[in-house]
Amino acid sequence: MNYAPFHRFSLPLLAVTLSAFLTGCGGKDEKAGANHEGAHKHEHRAPHGGTAIVLGKEAFHLELVRTAEAGLLTCYILDGHMESFIRIPAPHLIIETTVSNLTQTLELLPVANAATGEKNGDTSQFEARAAWLKTTTNFTGKVFGITIKGTTFTDVNFRFPEGNE
Fold this sequence. Notes:
The protein has 165 residues and is α+β, with helices and mostly antiparallel strands. The chain is 16% helix and 38% strand. A hairpin with a 4-residue loop joins β1 and β2. The longest helix has 21 residues. The chain starts with a helix and ends in a 5-residue tail after the last strand.
């Protein structure tokens, strides 16, 4: 039996069939995934159980963790999926908070960590202490400015503990 005609058309036929299969099965529906507020809510879990603050369009996140007993607010700088820490060279972060119509400014200072090699000027963790953090569980805030990997984010508003996602 002569298989020459079959071989001549088998490769193009296979290519067309495979292309049709891949297009119809498993392709990403950009319209469904483009709107994070559509059919499903797009959320990330904060690694320390804190409040997630999104920067830009999911470019980066801040995680705020309040330690009531110490009157401490810790801020972690994270990637867009809240999976990896991002070090920045900032000397401090400034957050303006409003509690019961009283505006207060928190200056979060860099935290060195010998275990990770992080140091002042190259860290992903910042902290501030304030007596009111011991008793206040809810407040609104604004991050005045933070630069991460060359992108500056300004006037980022949030609610604590809800976040801004």
